[in-house]
Structures
1.
Amino acid sequence: MPFSSSLPPRDGRLSRRAVLGLAAAAPLALAAPASASGVPVIGGERLGLAGVQVQGGMPLPKKLTARAWLVADHDSGEVLAACEAHRRLAPASTLKMLFADTVLSEFDRNQTHTVTDADLADIPAGSSLVGIKPGITYTVEQLWLGVFLRSGNDAVHVLSRMNGGIARTVAQMQAQAEDMQALDTHVVSPDGFDHPGQLSSAYDLTLFARHGLRNGDFRGYCSTRVANFPAGGKRTFQIQNTDRLLTGAWGLGTYKGLIGVKNGYTSNAGNTFTGAATRGGRTLIVTVMHPEPGGNGVYQETASLLDWGFAHAGKVQPVGTLAEPLSEGGARGTPAPGQRASAHGAAAAGHGGSSWGLIGGAGGAAALLAGGVYALRGRGRRRAVEDGRHRR
C-alpha cells in the first residue's frame, strides 16, 4: 500500500523530506473542530462525543466496564455503537496490528533469515517472547506466527531489523496510521510496549483490524490456534495463540465464528483486545480497551458486544463509519474535537508521572512531530527510554 508520507531509506535514517512531511502533518492534528474547519470529524461527529453512542432503542449488554469500546461492521464500515471511540489510551500489543499492516507485505512468507545478536538487541525487559534464538534460521511465516500467536516482541524486533531498523519501522507505522486516518495513534515502538506517548483509540485499532483482515496472510496468521516453532536443528516446540476467545483457554469457551484478531496486556496499560467474528454472512469487529482489571473481563466484554452486534445489526442506525485510507480514495477527516487521553492511559504510558499521556490537540501534534524528528539517526539522536513491564 502506498503511504501519504515520505519514508526513510532502509539504512534507518529519516530523509529531510520525511521530516518535512511529518511537520506538514502537524496542522492536521491541530485542526479545529468540524464546526469551525468545515472538515468532517473522522468517522462522524457522534464518534467525537463523550459517552455511549447508540441509536435504535436496543439495550446494550450490562456490566460494560471498558473505558472505550466500539462495534463495527467489517464490510460496510458502519459503526453500530461506541463508547469514547476516539479516546486516546495505551494500546499495548494490539498496536502489533498496525505493525502487521505496515510490514507484512515487505517480505515473502517463505523468505528465510538467520537471527543475530544484533536482531535481538534492545528488547525491553519483561517483554512477551516467542523464544527466538541467535543462530537459528526462521522463515518469515514463522516470525509472523511468533508475532500473532505469542505476541513475541523478539519476533517484532527481528522483522523490524529486516525492514531497515526500529526507527524506520516506527516512521512507516506512523505514516501508515496517517494514511488510514488513524489520527488518535502515536507510535513510539513497533511492539506496543509501554512508552510515554504511545497511544491509540478504539476507533483506530478497529481501522487496523479491518485493514488487516482484507489481507489473506494477516487473516490466516491471526486465526491460527497452534503452530510448531523452530527450536534449533530439527527440533520444534508448540506455541498457542494467546487469544482466549479463539482457543477457549482460561475457562472461556471458544467464540463461535471468531476469526482473531489481537489481544494486548501490559501491567501499566491493562487489557486491550480487538476481535472479529463471522456469523450468517456478516463479519463484525469489536474493540475493547481498558476494562476493569482481572480475569477474563476484556474477552467477556468483547463477546457480549459481538453477541449484541449480531443480534441487532440491521435494527440499529449506525452512529458513524470507519474511514477508508487516503491512498484508496478515502475522504479526509479531522481529529475529533476535545480528543483526549485518560488519566489512566497517561499513567500507563508514562509510568504514572508522564505528561505525555495527557496531551491532545496541539500537544498531540507536537508529540507526533517530535516523534518524527526523534526517529532521525544522526547527530543529536536520542534513544527511547524503554521501561515498564510488558506481557502481551
2.
Amino acid sequence: MDNAPFASSQASLVDKPIATILVVDDTPDNLTLMGTLLKEHYTVKVANSGEKALRIAQSAPQPDLILLDIVMPGLDGYEVCRQLKDNAATRNIPVIFLTARSDTDDERAGLALGAVDYITKPISPPILLARVNTHLALKATADFLRDKSAYLEREVAMRTLEVQAIQDVTIMAMTSLAETRDNETGNHIRRTQLYVKALAERLRHHPRFEHLLNDRMIDLLYKSAPLHDIGKIGIPDSILLKPGKLTVEEFEVMKTHTTLGRDAIEDAERRLGMRVAFLSVSKEIAYSHQEKWDGTGYPLGLAGDAIPVSARLMAVADVYDALISKRVYKPAFSHDQACNTIIRGKGTHFDPDMVDAFVDLAEDFRKIAEKYPDPS
C-alpha cells in the first residue's frame, strides 16, 4: 500500500504554524473560559487590560487575531481597537469584539472602528470557534495577497531599474563610440547634459513649455542629450578632424551627421521592435539640433516652433559649449564672449524664450563648465 499521500498530508499538518490568539478581558473567569475553549486549537495569550493588550499586540510574535472585550476600566475595547488600527504595525490584526451588549448601534460602532466581527456574550463555543477559524482563514488569504503584492512591487521596481540601467549603458556605449572619432571629450557630453537639464528646469513652468517639460521629459532630455552628435561617427576623418576651415563641399558632408544620427537611432528602434521614449527624444535631438529659429539651419530648414523643443534646448547648450571649448580649428572663447554670442542669436539662431532662460542661468552654465573642464 502506498502511504505517500498520507505522509505528505501529515507533513503539511505538522509544518502548518499554529495561530496565536490574544484574548483581552478584565474578568479572570472569562479569560480562563476563553483559554480553555481555544488552547486545544491555538496558542493563547491573555491580557486583563487594554494597556497590556496593546503591548502584547506590538510584541513579536504578534497575535494572528484578537478577541477583545468592550467594557473594561482604563482603555475600553473601542479605544484599544482604535489604537490598533491607527498603528501600521498592528492594523492588519483582525479584531473580534466580545460583549454582553447586543444593541445594533454598539455593533455598528465596533465595526466602524475596524473590527471584523462582533460576538455577544454568553459565548457559544461552536460559534466562537467557527468565527475564529473563518477570520483566521481570511487573514491568511489577506496576508498572502499582501505579500504577493509586495513581492510584485519589488519585482517591478527591480525590472524598472534594470531597464533604466540598460538605457544608460546603451547611451554610454554609443556615446563612447562617437568620442573615439571626434576631437570632443567626454566632459563636453557631461556639460551639455547638465546645460540642457538646467534650461529645461528653468522653463518647466513657462506657459509655452509647461505642457511638455515635466519630470519624466526632463529626465529623458538628460539621458538623450549625449547622443546629439552620434552621427559624426559616419563623417570621414579628413573632414571631422580637419584643423582648418571646411570647404563648401566638406561642410555639406559634415551637415549629414544629423541625418546619420537619426538613421542610426531609427535602426536601433527597428531592431528593438518597439518605440522607446528615450530613443525618440534622442532622435529628435540628433536630427534637429542644428536647426535655427529663423529657418536658416539644417537639415530641413525648420523654423520657430516647428523645431522640436528638445532640439532647441540642445542648440543653446551645444553652441555655448562649443564656443567656450578649444578646438583644433579655433581657440576657446571666454564665458562672457560665449554669452554675448548666444544673446545676439536671440530670435535668429535660438528660441527667444530659451535665450532669456539662458541669461538667467549664465552663472550656472559657467559653474558647470568649471566643474567639468576638458583635459589640458
3.
Amino acid sequence: MTMHHTTGLTGPAPRATVSVKPLVLSAPQRGEDQHVRITAPTTGTSLPVVLFAHGFGSDLDGYAPLVDHWASGGFVVIQTTHLDSKRLGLPADDPRRPEMWRYRVQDMRRILDELTTLEASVPGLEGRIDHSRVVAAGHSFGGQTAGILVGLRVTDPRTGAAEDLSDSRVMASIQLATAGKGGDELTPFAHDNLPWLRDQDFSHITAPGLVVAGDKDDLPLSTRGPAWTADPYTLSRGNKSLLTVRGGEHFLGGISGHQVTETTDENPDRVALVQQVTLAYLRHVTGTDLTDWKNAQAVLTDDHPLGSLESK
C-alpha cells in the first residue's frame, strides 16, 4: 500500500536530490565554526529555500524524512549544527549556554548573509536559488528559532528585554511540536533549565505560518499537556494554519530520522502525513503550487484518521 492511499493527499512527482556537507562558515564570535548542510533538487531553477532548525541536541544530519521530502519536492533545504548539539558537547557551565536560543537565531542569519557563498559551494546549484523566497522551519527548540525569525519575541532571561529579532528575508514559518507560552504554566524543570521559555510573545508574528502539533505530545515542560504545542497557532495573529496529528507524540511518528531511538510513537503513516502537509504548505506559501494545499484542507477534516487541518 502506498502512502497516498493512507493520507489521501497529493504531491509533486519527486525529483532527484543532492546533499553536500559540511560547508563551513567562519564565526569567531560564536566560538566554533558553523557547519552547514545543503540538500537540493538536481533540476529546476528559482528554487525556494527552507532554513531548518533542529531540536535541542540534534545536528545537521537529523530529520532526513522531512529534509529529503522537501528537497525532492523542489526546495533547497539548509541545515546547520547549533551550539546545543550533542555533537559539540559544550560543558554544562559553558557561558554560551544561557544564550543558546539567541546563538541559534544568529546561526540562521549568518546562513542568510552567506547564502550566495553557500550556493556557490554546492556543485550545480549556483544561480538556481530564489533568494526572495525563504521559509524558516524547525522542530521543538528549532520551532522557537524559526518563530523568532518571523517575530516571536523571547524575553532574554539575563536582561529581561524582549527584542524584535525577526528577519525580513524570511517570508513564512513552519513550527513542528514547538513550545507554547511560559508563565506559571511552565514546570519547575522548564523554568530552571530552559529559561528562554519563561516569557514568549506570539502576538507580533504577522508572517504566514503552519504549526504542527501532536495531540499526545505531553512534554515535561508545561502543566497544560499536548494543547501547549498549539499555542504558536492560537496565540498568533491570522494567516496561520494548524495541523493536529492524531496520536502524535513529540517526534510526530519519527520525523527526526529513520529508526531513531528517541521516537516513542514510530508510525510511517504519521510521518507521511507530516511530510505531505508540510510540502503542500511550502508550495502554497511560496506561490509554487496551490492545489496540493487546497486538497489537504479538503481531505483533513475532523473525521480523517491521521489528522486535521484548520486555518485562521
